[in-house]
Amino acid sequence: MTKPLVAIRSVSKNFGEFQALKNVSLDVWPGEVMCLIGASGSGKTTLLRCINQLATIDAGGIWLDGELLGVREHGGRLHRLSEHQIGRQRLKTGMVFQRFNLFPHKTALENIIEGPTQVQGRKLDEVRAEAIELLRRVGLAAKADAYPAQLSGGQQQRVAIARALAMKPMLMLFDEPTSALDPELVGEVLAVMKELAKSGMTMMVVTHELGFAREVADRVVYMDQGAIVEQGRASDVLGAPREERTKAFLSAVI
Amino acid sequence: MKPAPALAQGFPDLSGTRIAREPHWFRWISAALIVLVLAAIARAFANGQIEWSYVGRFLTVKVILEGIVNTMVMAVLAMMLGIFLGIVVAIMRLSPNPVLKSVAAGYTWLFRGTPLILQLLLWFNLALVFPTIGIPGLWTARAVDVMTPFLAALLGLGINQGAYTSEVMRAGMLSVDIGQYEAAQAIGMGRLRALRRIILPQAMRVVIPPLGNEFIGMVKATSLASVIQYPELLHNAENIYYANSRVIELLIVAGLWYLLVVSILTPLQMLLERRFARGTLRLAR
């Protein structure tokens, strides 16, 4: 039997008084494309940030590829891992941000080769060839030497996807990747993500693009107030929701 | 296709009419007044007790030229020490470690809180407190031999500068978007690597104008090292007028040199700014 790539067990996360995640448990299977939907503040972005440890969880555990994230069990207690060890664990995930977060002082190509050369210590020639191939894959081979400020939002986000892929992650996390884009630029980013899904990448996508979820997602997870309310096949959750809260959300969005 | 509706009458065509030049009377009057005042000041100096020939003669004597070289050497070295300390202290200040944070805050408090000239005198007179310095058993020396005017000036100016520069650096680092830290972390970078590769290069763009300002201040602050016998420009000018009593003439010589140096530094700063503006302008390549 295959094991889940990500196993989330009883995870809670608070920001002061605010409970961002309440006892969330979830499995993500290898090759699965999962879309997380829900109103802002429902905890879907926080869940993503906990998986690549930009946020630390307050209770529960997250296993990625069988390895417990952020802490080590020893003598009946959990001990936090060092920054170095956490950095190593992060390499298994690639993150794409809502606001792209490209490095503005580096060209598109330099953005992509930064991680593999600086963090993974790989050879520049080999990494550069891969980076050019990645740029071609996201349709930006001609923009290798452009700075982020010279690119449109959609182009920047495609470079950001290539940057994340350059680390050869097992899991890609997308945090509202099209929310900061002008409507006419959304399609080009979604097309790259669809291609990635087809290639077999495991993906967790926080999104408001229900059309994308319907077309690409193997599973849709609806979250509200820090908890998973409903999940299942896209056609079921989006087409025939069982929970009242899901129905209310979907009718408000569409 | 329907024709556009007819335009209303009563609005004349102004497309060929030029905009008249304004007379700007006040600008002319104020400019004339300022020229008069400047002329009066120039006349006063020309007729005053100044031997301009001395200014010309001493402008390029060897001792003055050596002074300007020493001034620049000290300004550059002390600024380098100041920037190094400033970056280290700014990183400590922004670290999550409360011990590093407190040490950094204490350093800034101490060296910003006391006059620079006092710090210079303290370094220079360190031998009064510690007659010998060194590492016990390995190496020792008499403090008077080690603490030369050069070293005292370098430590005094550089360490003081570090306290100010750390605040400039901290502001620069805070100006970089938090998303840049997160993106660096997401590709597996640790804190220090993210600072060096991603945050500091972006912070430099913000800190260069205030650092240029600080460096200009440093060029002039080296003149304080004249009190601890460091042979910089002002100190050497003073030595000449102690001998020939041409006080004002030599002060003017020193002043002209400081002005010249600062005038050269300003365009250099602009070149640096352009270097670090990479990627921020749409057309920059």
Q: Sheet with the most strands of chain A?
A: 6 strands, mixed
Count helical runs of chain A.
9
Helix-strand sequence of chain A: EEEHEEEEHEHHHEHEHEEHH
Strand content of chain B: under 5%
* Rounded radius of gyration of chain B (Å): 28 Å
Q: Helicity of chain B, in percent?
A: over 70%
Helix-strand category of chain A? alpha/beta
Helix content of chain A: 25-40%
Would you give an account of this structure?
The complex is a heterodimer of chains A (254) and B (285). With 254 residues, chain A is α/β, with parallel strands linked by helices. Chain A has helices at 44-51, 83-90, 108-118, 124-137, 153-165, 183-198, 210-216, 234-239, 244-253; strands spanning 6-15, 18-28, 33-37, 59-64, 67-68, 71-74, 77-80, 93-96, 171-175, 202-206, 219-224, 227-232. In chain A, the strands form three sheets. In chain A, strands 8-9-10-3-11-12 form a six-stranded mixed sheet, with helices on both faces. Chain A has a four-stranded antiparallel sheet with strand order 2-1-4-5, with helices on one face. In chain A, a hairpin with a 2-residue loop joins strand 1 (6-15) and strand 2 (18-28). In chain A, helix 4 (124-137) crosses helix 5 (153-165). With 285 residues, chain B is mainly α. Chain B has helices spanning 25-47, 52-58, 62-93, 98-112, 116-124, 126-129, 143-146, 149-174, 178-186, 191-221, 233-244, 247-276, and strands at residues 132-135, 139-142. Chain B has a two-stranded antiparallel ribbon. Chain B is flat and about 100 Å long. In chain B, 29% of the residues are buried. Classes of the chains: A alpha/beta (254), B mainly alpha (285). Chains A and B meet through helix 2, strand 8 and helix 3 of A and helix 9 and helix 10 of B.
Name its key features.
heterodimer; A: 254 residues; alpha/beta; six-stranded mixed β-sheet; four-stranded antiparallel β-sheet; 12 strands; 37% helix; B: 285 residues; mainly alpha; two-stranded antiparallel sheet; 12 helices
